[in-house]
Amino acid sequence: MSLRHFLRLTDLSLPEAREVLSLATQLKAEPKGARRLLLQGLSVAVVLEKASTRTRVSFEIGIAELGAYPVVLGVQGSQLGRGEPIRDTARVLGRYCDAIVYRTYGHDRLLEMTQGKVPVINALSDDGHPVQVLCDIFTVEEHLGPIRGKRVAFVGDCSSNMARSWLEAAPLFDFHLVLAGPASFRPPPQEIQAAGSHVSFVESRPLALAGVDVVNTDVWTSMGQEAETRSRLDAFKEWTVDATMLASAPSHAIVLHCLPAHRGEEIDEATLEGPRSRVWDQAENRLHVQKALLAWLLRRS
Ligand code: CP
Ligand code: NVA
């Protein structure tokens, strides 16, 4: 069995992503703990260099529910916070653990973590949040059926890690992504080019949600960008997902937000808590899909 990582969505082919999503459907339908034998005897490290609630808890519990042992490591309290190189940490963790789930900054840091020679899962980086978007595709399909051919809008900071992973997902899963927001916040040109005709751009708020099936947004200031908070509040002030914006979306359209949400900024309270919102299902599905991804990556030959 060859070593596989999940650093970006396209680390899986479409058939492989479909295997993971279909295993997630099975796991979600089963009683808790029904698969304790799947990863029994294994250990998984969860290394977090940024804050986390959902990712940390869903991975930690998911790992335990598969019968493996989770070890959660933060910057504070580990030698990473005192400057131990990632490649040294990686090689040591690789001697103890069977996989590493890693939340960090640049993609280079994820690549360095692969020196542990065990599967590494990107649990959010500056360049993407692929595990979240894989889970979100599961949520879309649960509520609306196959994502193929659908129209998904991402509203607000279209240069964010979330928008970039949605952009990567569009050609892989064959849906259309509308990036709606200020033109000065877009993904890098090579990523736009890779999406080809699967992406289009909208800079006018009234047109943003015409014909879309899914409305997705995320914070205007991502972790690590706190120094830009004020200028970002100003840049995105027209782009709150609210009832006025949603009025132009078809009545079946659902609203997603990976959370945490800043009510009154990227989304208003009424929309987040309203009838189109699927954010709590979305958060729950982190558990089921990540369990499937781990089981798939660690499948025993
Ligand atoms: N959506 C998400 O990744 O949430 P956390 O930052 O709480 O892990
Ligand atoms: N774009 C956000 C996602 C949080 C889950 C961030 O990186 O902070």
Task: Explain briefly what this protein structure is.
With 301 residues, the chain is of the alpha/beta class. The protein has helices at 14-29, 54-65, 86-96, 107-113, 130-144, 161-173, 189-195, 229-235, 243-246, 269-272, 279-297; strands at residues 43-48, 69-74, 99-103, 120-122, 151-155, 176-180, 199-202, 214-217, 254-257.
Q: Can you give the mean pLDDT?
A: 97
CATH class call of the largest domain: Alpha Beta
Which small molecules are bound?
A: phosphoric acid mono(formamide)ester, norvaline
- Strand order in space, largest sheet: 7-6-5-8-9
* Secondary-structure arrangement, i.e. CATH architecture of the largest domain: 3-Layer(aba) Sandwich
Structural class: alpha/beta
Q: What sequence of helices (H) and strands (E) makes up the elements?
A: HEHEHEHEHEHEHEEHHEHH
Could you tell me the strand content as a percent range? 5-15%
CATH fold call of the largest domain? Rossmann fold
**Sheet with the most strands?**
5 strands, parallel
| Number of discrete helical segments | 11
Shape label: globular
What would you report as the Rg, rounded to the nearest angstrom? 19 Å
Helix content: 25-40%
Low-confidence stretches: none
Total tally of structural domains: 2
How would you characterize the overall build of this protein?
- With 301 residues, the chain is α/β, with parallel strands linked by helices.
- The chain folds into two domains: 9-128 and 286-298, Aspartate/ornithine carbamoyltransferase (Rossmann fold), CATH 3.40.50.1370; 130-282, 3-Layer(aba) Sandwich (Rossmann fold), CATH 3.40.50.
- 38% of the residues lie in helices and 14% in strands.
- The chain contains eleven helices and nine strands.
- The strands form two sheets. It has a five-stranded parallel sheet, covered by helices on one side. The protein has a four-stranded parallel sheet with strand order 2-1-3-4, sandwiched between helices.
- The chain is globular.
- The structure holds phosphoric acid mono(formamide)ester and norvaline.
- Norvaline binds at residues 124, 129, 160-162, 218-219, 222-223, 258.
